[in-house]
Amino acid sequence: MMLIASGCSVTERLNTAATTQGQVRAGVSLAPLPNDCRTKEAHAAVSVGVELRSTLARERGALDKQNARTDRCAAFYDDQKTKLAKQ
Length: 87
Known about the structure:
The structure is a single chain. By secondary structure, the chain is mostly helical. 69% of the residues lie in helices and 0% in strands. The chain is built from two helices and no strands.
């Protein structure tokens, strides 16, 4: 059991070192991902006795909200890419 735990630690340290080395070599630090980009939109609740069409309408609204979030996050990284290309 101890061998497995130490193996994970070594792998984690190597991954961290490789990431750091790559960042130093690239000379680039990306801006942190906006918290909004990590948010998940919940499905519309289905309740007994509620008309199915209203549930579908709420579900479509939730999907529209998530799609707008995805567009904002894509625009954020497109902006980052443009800024890096200018350097």
